[in-house]
């Protein structure tokens, strides 16, 4: 047998012996690659089933951060979706709890006063007292429901917005005129420092509602001889609408919470007497955020408060 034939024979034998190992290696490699490819899908399925089974929206897929393929992006997208769902669910859960708590008190008062009036059918003074209490609580419930509807509308954001070019100085003047009589009743002056050339694309109804809420707070928590100032100006690439007063101010421990739903700086009794549902500032912040802006507050107890609305200074012909 020639040397070339022997070499060929040895090569064939080597290939035949190595073939099973190569096939086994290919199978193992294929299994590993396939397993790695389908692991994210399995984890997505497991997480979705666990959420459905346990009603636990805090679960996350949490794929390894070093993965940068389409499945990793899909898992990250699902995690973001779960974050939004959990936030929305917790918000609605808290909202339902808060509403139940806020309605429980006036309903209890109405029931007890009605029973009290029925127990004293021959005493007109006591019956009138009961009816007055029922009327007051009913009005507060009506105001609470109105605020809830307004807040719900504001929370839906751009879906219900009707933006149009608005001259902000004219809008401020309109609101100031609307509240002038109420301010005069409290002996409070309204001072206006307004740039007349600022025009933004806004939902006029929502912005009027936000500004009225801020100014009403200043009037209700001000003092005789005091003032409310509206200051409208451009700063860099933003528009600043500042509502300040020299009223009672807000205690520092309350400042982090004043935009929370149903949060009231006043005691419950005082707040209810003033018709304060604790929803006004929550709605104001939601309206400002709907317009791509932010709202900040600075306050010193006994000195006054300053609310600063910061809106993007976009051209008036562009949508918000």
Question: Could you characterize the architecture of this molecule?
Answer:
The chain is α+β, with helices and mostly antiparallel strands and 320 residues long. It folds into 2 domains: 3-82, no CATH class; 164-312, Histidine kinase-like ATPase, C-terminal domain (Heat Shock Protein 90, 2-Layer Sandwich), CATH 3.30.565. It is built from 7 helices and 7 strands; from the N terminus they run H-H-H-E-H-E-E-H-E-E-H-H-E-E. It has helices at residues 3-54, 70-119, 124-155, 168-185, 204-220, 268-273, 280-290, and strands at residues 164-167, 189-194, 199-202, 227-235, 238-245, 294-300, 304-312. It has a 5-stranded mixed beta sheet with strand order 2-4-5-7-6, with helices on one face. Strands 1-3 form a two-stranded antiparallel sheet. Helix 3 packs parallel to helix 7 (280-290) and helix 5 (204-220) packs antiparallel against helix 7.
Let me know the CATH homologous superfamily of the largest domain.
Histidine kinase-like ATPase, C-terminal domain
**Largest β-sheet summary:** 5 strands, mixed
CATH topology of the largest domain, by name, is Heat Shock Protein 90
How many structural domains can be distinguished in the coordinates? 2
Task: Give the helix proportion (percent range).
Answer: 55-70%
End-to-end separation in angstroms reads 89 Å
Runs with pLDDT <50, length 5+? 268-273, 316-320
Quick description:
Helix content is 58%, strand content 15%. It is built from seven helices and seven strands, in the order αααβαββαββααββ.
């Amino acid at each position: 047998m020639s040397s070339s034939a022997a070499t060929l024979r040895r090569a064939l034998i080597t290939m035949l012996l190595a073939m099973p190992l190569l096939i086994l290696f290919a199978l193992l490699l294929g299994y590993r690659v396939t397993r790695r490819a389908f692991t994210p899908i399995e984890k997505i399925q497991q997480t979705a089933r666990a959420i459905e089974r346990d009603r636990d929206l805090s679960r996350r897929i949490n794929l390894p951060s070093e993965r940068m393929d389409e499945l990793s992006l899909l898992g990250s997208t699902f995690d973001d979706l779960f974050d939004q769902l959990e936030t929305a669910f917790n918000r609605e859960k808290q909202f339902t709890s808060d509403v139940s708590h806020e309605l429980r008190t006036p309903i209890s008062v109405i029931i007890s006063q009605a029973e009290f009036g029925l127990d004293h059918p021959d005493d007109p003074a006591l019956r009138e007292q009961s009816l007055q209490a029922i009327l007051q609580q009913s009005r507060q419930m009506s105001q609470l429901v109105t605020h809830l509807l307004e807040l719900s509308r504001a929370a839906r954001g751009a879906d219900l917005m009707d933006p149009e070019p608005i001259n902000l100085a004219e809008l401020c003047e309109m609101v100031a005129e609307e509240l002038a009589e109420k301010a005069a009743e409290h002996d409070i002056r309204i001072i206006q420092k307004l740039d007349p050339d600022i025009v933004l694309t806004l939902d006029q109804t929502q912005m009027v509602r936000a500004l009225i809420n801020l100014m009403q707070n200043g009037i209700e928590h001000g003092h005789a001889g005091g003032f409310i100032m509206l200051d409208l100006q451009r700063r860099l690439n933003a528009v600043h609408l500042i509502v300040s007063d020299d009223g009672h101010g807000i205690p520092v421990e309350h400042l982090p919470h004043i935009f929370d739903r149903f949060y009231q700086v006043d005691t419950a009794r005082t707040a209810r007497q003033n018709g304060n549902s604790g929803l006004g500032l929550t709605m104001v912040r939601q309206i400002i955020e709907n317009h791509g802006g932010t709202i900040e507050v600075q306050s010193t107890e006994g000195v006054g408060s300053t609310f600063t609305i910061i809106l993007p200074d976009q051209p008036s012909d562009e949508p918000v």
